[in-house]
Amino acid sequence: RYTEFKLVTREVCKLPSFFSSALFRRIDVECYGIVTRDAFLKYWAESSMLTVDMATQVFEILKQPNRRYLTKADFKPVLEELLATHPGLEFLQGTPEFQEKYAETVIYRIFYYINRSGNGRLTLRELKRSNLIFVMQQVDEEEEINKILRYFSYEHFYVIYCKFWELDTDHDYLLDRENLIRYGNHCLTYRIVDRIFSQAPKKFSSNVEGKMSYEDFVYFILAEEDKSSEPSLEYWFKCIDLDGNGVLTSSELQYFYEEQLHRMSCMSQEPVLFEDILCQIVDMISPEREGYITLHDLKRSKLSGNIFNILFNLNKFMAFESRDPFLIHQVEWDRFAHREYVRLSMEEDSEAASNGNVESWEESLEAPF
User: Fold this and answer.
1) Any alpha helices (H) in the chain, and if so which ranges?
2) Which residue numbers delimit the EF-hand domain (predicted)?
């Protein structure tokens, strides 16, 4: 029976225990609610599970018949079982709407980092090249979910969702340009926000003109707060590459920097001329060919993320100019998420203390957590 199948999944198949429902359904195709020993052995042998690696096993269990890729929906049964059984997520069981958002966020993070083609179809090759299987094994062994920073951390989900909630003032789960421009205390330029909404880096999943969905926001915030990662470099490269010819020219860099220069003047900051900035960028990247920068050039340099901050994130650019340690040691996603989680938690505790117990309970019905 299904309730007894978890042990088979983990001890016999050596798969993460939260794959038991997906594996059970794959064998029990007629939905009898029972998998016999013979049926299990028949499936395992006919699917050649004994001779393939775990990534291939996972791929075969999750994918739909006659497909050669995984979609986001294919991961839902695994996340549902994880939420139902993992001790580190037990506290969410009374709030199904937040369980759903946690599951969505995990899946979006998986596809952001692993589905490098960005087409929503995760191939076996992409799965094998990733660390997802290893991370899933860690999740199965670790009771504290927040120790698993990649993909599954509840704290990371909390930060992403709260950031979205703060911007989504009408709570319709859609953001427009004016919503997004408020991100990070208006740290981004209008020109880069316009490029995001032109869907240059990623086609929006919202299907509503001029609106960004929660999924689109997850991709944005991961790209913005971890510019050291290759998916982030690809995301922002597409934004800056105005003509889509695969190279960044000085005129394209200048187009985005002009607004930064204007903002510095408005703040009475000493302006840094574009000519000086261009020299800095070239020194940091050392492009293979003079006159333009390719995505390959950016991926070779450890300082590439700073270039995008120079062009469209004023707060991070000013930190760069002041030679903050942030210059060399890019604030990566894990550090950002931890800092923001602590801040958000302190704000929540402060509000609860000032409002009193009754009011804080009422408030919790409206706030995301």
Assistant:
1) 2-7, 20-27, 37-46, 54-62, 76-85, 96-114, 124-129, 132-141, 154-167, 177-180, 183-186, 190-197, 214-225, 230-240, 250-266, 274-285, 295-300, 304-312, 314-321, 333-364
2) 228-263
For 294-351, the three-class secondary structure string (H helix, E strand, C coil) is EHHHHHHCCCHHHHHHHHHEHHHHHHHHCCCHHHCCCCCHHHHHHHHHHHHHHHHHHH
Cβ neighbors of 177 (< 8 A, separation 6 or more) are 190, 193, 194, 197, 210
- Rounded to the nearest integer, the mean pLDDT of the chain is 89
DSSP letter assigned to residue 48: T
pLDDT of residue 35: 84
Domains plus CATH for the chain?
2-152 (1.10.238.220), 171-180+187-327 (1.10.238.10)
HSE (CB half, 13 Å, CA atoms) of 31? 0
Distance CA 151, CA 312 (A): 27
- Residue 286 pLDDT exceeds 80: yes
Each residue of 131-174: pLDDT tens digit? 999 999 999 999 999 999 999 999 999 999 999 999 999 999 99
Q: How far apart, in Å, are the Cα atoms of 281 and each of 43, 274, 306, 354?
A: 56, 10, 9, 48
Q: Look at residue 3 in the predicted model and tell me its pLDDT.
A: 64
Kind of pairing between the strands at 174-175 and 212-213: antiparallel
What CA–CA distances, in Å, run from 184 to 63, 221, 226, 313? 38, 10, 14, 9
The pLDDT of residue 352 is 64
Higher per-residue pLDDT: 328 or 60: 60
The pTM assigned to this predicted structure is 0.88
Q: Compute φ and ψ for 213, nearest 5 degrees.
A: -85, 175
The answer to whether the CB of 15 falls within 8 A of the CB of 23 is: yes
User: Do residues 6 and 20 touch, judged by C-beta distance below 8 A?
Assistant: yes
Q: 260 vs 15, 180, 239, 243, CA distance in Å?
A: 51, 17, 16, 21
